[in-house]
Amino acid sequence: MSVARVVLDAILLPVRLLRALLSYLDIFSIRYSGKPLVSPGGSRQNRADVRKRIVAGNVMNAAARAEDEAEKEREKVRRGWQLVARPKGGEERTIARRVIAFDDFDDGRVLATSGSSITVVGRDGKETKLRDVEGVTEVVALPPQGA
User: With 0-12 CB in 10 A as exposed, 13-18 as middle and 19+ as buried, what is 88?
Assistant: First the structure.
C-alpha cells in the first residue's frame, strides 16, 4: 500500500463511519416509520439503494427470527429428554434431565451434556457442573491420567 493511499484512508475514515451510521439509522427509520431519514432527492439510484437496504434489513430480521425459533424448538425438545437407569429387576430412576449426549466412567459416574453445559453425575445422584459451553453435541468420559 502506498503512503498516499493510507493517508487518504485515514482522512476519509470519519466520513465513512458517519455514512455507515447514517445508513444504519436510515434503515431503522424506514423499518419502523416507513419514512427514510434522508430524502432520496429524486434520483433513481437513491430509491434503489433504499429498497436494497429495506430488503437487507428484512432478510437480517428474518434470519434472526428463524434462529430464535429454532433455539426455542431445541430447548423444548431438550426439556423432555432424560437419562434413565433401568436395572434388572429394579425400579427405573432418572439420572439426569435435558440430556442430549452422555458417556459413563468405569467407576459408575456419568458425564452428560444438555448442549449448553457439561455435568458429571455421581453414583449418589449428585450433579457437578464442569463447564458452561454452547453447542456441545457429544461427550466422552476418559479415565484419569495415569490410571
Answer: exposed
Going by C-alpha positions, the residue among 76, 32, 26 that lies closest to residue 50 is: 26
pTM for the whole structure: 0.48
Backbone dihedral angles phi then psi of residue 23, each to the nearest 5 degrees: -65, -40
Residue the block writes with cell 449418589: 124
Q: pLDDT tens digits, residue range 77-116?
A: 567 788 888 888 888 888 888 888 899 998 889 999 888 8
Range with the lowest mean pLDDT among 3-12, 34-43, 51-60, 92-101?
Answer: 34-43
Per-residue cell: 135: 453447542
Where are the chain's structural domains?
A: 3-77, 81-132
Find cell 453425575 and name the residue.
Answer: 121
- C-alpha span between 101 and 93 (Å, rounded): 18
Alpha-carbon span 34 to 19, nearest angstrom: 20
Q: How far apart are CA 21 and CA 29, in angstroms?
A: 12
